[in-house]
């Protein structure tokens, strides 16, 4: 991908020379003539690096650098400040405002290209580390088999939801569900088939819940759904919709082998300020146990 450079310089001659030089080196280059125009282009053009003159009309380069670093949409852009002032105070102030480098004018273009290469390598390394961090973070909260959120994320989300309803006086419900007779299916057909059933169920749950709901694998064959702004009546309706979907859609193991499954559900609604993650999940678990006890394939 072509790397993008934004030059912010109110001198038409200097801007044109740098535009031609950097374009010749294979960079995608744009030029802004003022700090305000540069700020706007930083958001629309999304450059990898900004080469910014310290003296600009309206907004100077240091103020621009500070604003770019404070905005989450632009703080990943690396900034090189260019100035005719070669004093320590200006350099320190530039670095305090978020600049990666400081070049003294008149610019030596060989030095500029080398400094630009260094800052781009640095940015690539940072971007790579951030992508890896995102992948690792996603992996730490996702269930490997089903791709749903895992128990660790469930605990985190429950704490957030409890804090929200206690603060604003709203309500929410949790639904626990698992596959009826799952142990017998596993014993009869093997764990690979059991895994296919869990993946199938996870997919049905994820597909049929609302965008505001959170589906997690609770453990084993159990799944949990956090349903914000939902009382017990709404939770019952949601569980019934899911139960009927699961009942009518068998698991396709192979072209000529399908296994019909059913699921039982237990629901629990938030009851007040003393409620905890543990107490709410325990009530949902008892309701699920009652659904099993009363014949399975039902909601309690």
TrEMBL record:
GO terms of biological process kind: cell adhesion involved in single-species biofilm formation; negative regulation of bacterial-type flagellum-dependent cell motility; phosphorelay signal transduction system
One GO term describing the cellular component: plasma membrane
Superkingdom of source: Bacteria
Record Gene3D superfamilies: 3.30.70.270, 3.40.50.2300
A Gene Ontology molecular function term of the record: diguanylate cyclase activity
Extent of the signal sequence: none
Start and end residues of each Response regulatory domain: 4-120
Residue ranges constituting the GGDEF domain according to the UniProt record: 170-300
Cross-referenced SUPFAM superfamilies: CheY-like (SSF52172), Nucleotide cyclase (SSF55073)
List of residues that carry 4-aspartylphosphate: 53
Alphabetic keyword roster: Phosphoprotein
Record's function text: May play the central regulatory role in sporulation. It may be an element of the effector pathway responsible for the activation of sporulation genes in response to nutritional stress. Spo0A may act in concert with spo0H (a sigma factor) to control the expression of some genes that are critical to the sporulation process.
Protein name (Swiss-Prot/TrEMBL): Stage 0 sporulation protein A homolog
């Amino acid at each position: 991908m072509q790397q993008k450079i934004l030059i912010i310089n109110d001198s038409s001659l200097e801007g044109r020379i740098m535009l031609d030089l950097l374009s010749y080196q294979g960079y995608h280059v744009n030029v802004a003539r003022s700090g305000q125009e540069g700020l706007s282009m930083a958001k629309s053009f999304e450059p990898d690096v900004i080469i910014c003159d310290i003296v600009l009309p309206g907004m100077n380069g240091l103020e621009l650098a500070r604003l770019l670093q404070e905005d989450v949409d632009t703080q990943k852009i690396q900034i090189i400040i260019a100035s005719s002032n070669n004093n320590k105070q200006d350099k320190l102030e530039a670095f305090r405002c978020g600049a990666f480098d400081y070049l003294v004018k008149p610019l030596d273009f060989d030095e500029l290209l080398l400094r630009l290469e260094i800052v781009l390598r640095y940015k690539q390394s940072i971007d790579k580390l951030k992508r890896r961090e995102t992948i690792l973070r996603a992996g730490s909260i996702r269930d490997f088999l089903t791709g749903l959120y895992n128990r660790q994320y469930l605990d985190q989300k429950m704490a957030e939801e409890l804090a929200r309803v206690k603060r604003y006086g709203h309500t929410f419900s949790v639904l626990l569900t698992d596959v009826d007779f799952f142990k017998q299916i596993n014993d009869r057909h093997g764990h690979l088939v059991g895994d296919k059933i869990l993946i199938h169920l996870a997919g049905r749950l994820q597909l049929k819940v609302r965008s505001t709901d959170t589906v997690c694998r609770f453990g084993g064959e159990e799944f949990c759904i956090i349903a914000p702004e939902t009382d017990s009546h709404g939770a019952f309706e949601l569980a019934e919709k899911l139960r009927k979907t699961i009942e009518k859609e068998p698991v396709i193991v192979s072209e000529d082998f399908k296994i019909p499954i059913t699921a039982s559900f237990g629901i629990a609604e938030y009851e007040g300020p003393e409620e905890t993650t543990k107490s709410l999940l325990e009530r949902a678990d008892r309701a699920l146990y009652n659904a099993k006890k009363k014949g399975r394939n039902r909601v309690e």
